[in-house]
């Protein structure tokens, strides 16, 4: 996401403010050399926050101005500018009903380097001191919030806490109130009002709970796993998977916790490492209809095209799902009970194929030695387990498959046709690429249906480290760094088109790379960068003596024309300032850059181009005939 935001800054005048903790190395890397400032709480800010809270404190505080002043003074000193400590210290006073007890608590406020952990421990002791029903609710809230695989909404968490194992559905009368969930956790959790996400108050809260989980919530993953499996076993889901998109979406809307349970139950079973959780999972896997309901939610496409809910395997076995989650003990039980190690679903995928995709080495190690496992099984897209492992970056599985005594085809092509190396390069899997190119039997110049090589794909997606590794293999020579695909586009052209400045900078300096190469449309890398608004790439390419900045493509358009046509003002300004760029050059339709900008409604570009011509432009000249441009005509301008 940060990479894309920084790319946006290349396209236009975009200001971007980021805040983070100072200890994150990636932040320093992304924003190196950028203006920065340290933000810390000022004493007056802390005092203001505390002052605003006094009215809601116990009566002995709210009715006593001098005690309020003491509370504020002592918390300010103990918190040392940390708002989180301010919040926790204040929370510790809310159950103090007498002045003496308030003063005693203030004298015992944690201070110094261990203050935060001490404050958290005090909160947990207070929670534990509740009556059993309240402690149980708080414990389960903290269990879910601190151990789930993604943040939960308040609705999801309420339903999670309302699940009663063995019951056929949710009893709506058993749903806890959000205010109680928050209140009983003594300030450790908050609700984001915009997203409705309920979460921990601070990242240090998560770190603290991770350290003490064996003390306070030792069976967290087991408890969550059992709830997920209990939820997925509700009578609601015995009707199997849904037959159409509306039915599927209605099911998700009716069942708030279904998405989380279907996608994550197996992860919690695996992390629980518990026999009871395993047995519950086996019982669930035996119910084909309920399993199919869960699989549909887990494997459905995130793209909502018509019929998307049916684009999942209609026939899928327990072994496939077990392999997806990496449940080795359960897989051993299934195989011992007669499940087929090489059973395929109706996408022709086997348990080994899924284990390779999801990166579960334990399952691959379990299945690969078996004689009834086909290591080179091919699914409906022509992909093998090696192809899936390579494309998902699982280098340990790639090595295991390649080194297996029965062997697998290192250059197996799918229906695209792409090889494992092509997939690894395309996805930026550095470790896998390194592993594959070190082998003498891997085709480093394999081409897919569009003629793209692994290097071309790496450049296309901006994977600089992969580009460097593949380019280094050119010394053999085994890789053509300037190879052309079926559209005569080179790796440099693709990198420029997609705005990958680092890749462009590396490739243009490689021996044998033509920086001004033309594709089938006579477009150069500079034209592609100009058309797509990548100003830094444009500047880099234009600075080279071997690049013609005024060259025209097959339609007669120049880089300036493309930039104007697409409304990229910064690039237009940059190219206009060059002596070797002609502002009034026309394409085969007789259109100038100005007329393209006018037709597509880019008034700022029109103004700049017109001013650059140093004379008035008639209205007629900036109103080309209909049907020429990419959009509606700009309103008439007096220039």
TrEMBL record:
It comes from the Eukaryota. Residues 137-209 form the GPI inositol-deacylase winged helix domain. Pfam families: Ank_2 (PF12796), Ank_4 (PF13637), WHD_GPIID (PF22939). Keywords: ANK repeat, Repeat. The keyword Aminoacyl-tRNA synthetase does not apply. This is Ankyrin repeat-containing domain protein. The lineage of its organism: Eukaryota, Fungi, Dikarya, Ascomycota, Pezizomycotina. InterPro entries: Ankyrin_rpt (IPR002110), Ankyrin_rpt-contain_sf (IPR036770), GPIID_WHD (IPR054471). ANK repeats lie at residues 381-404, 450-482.
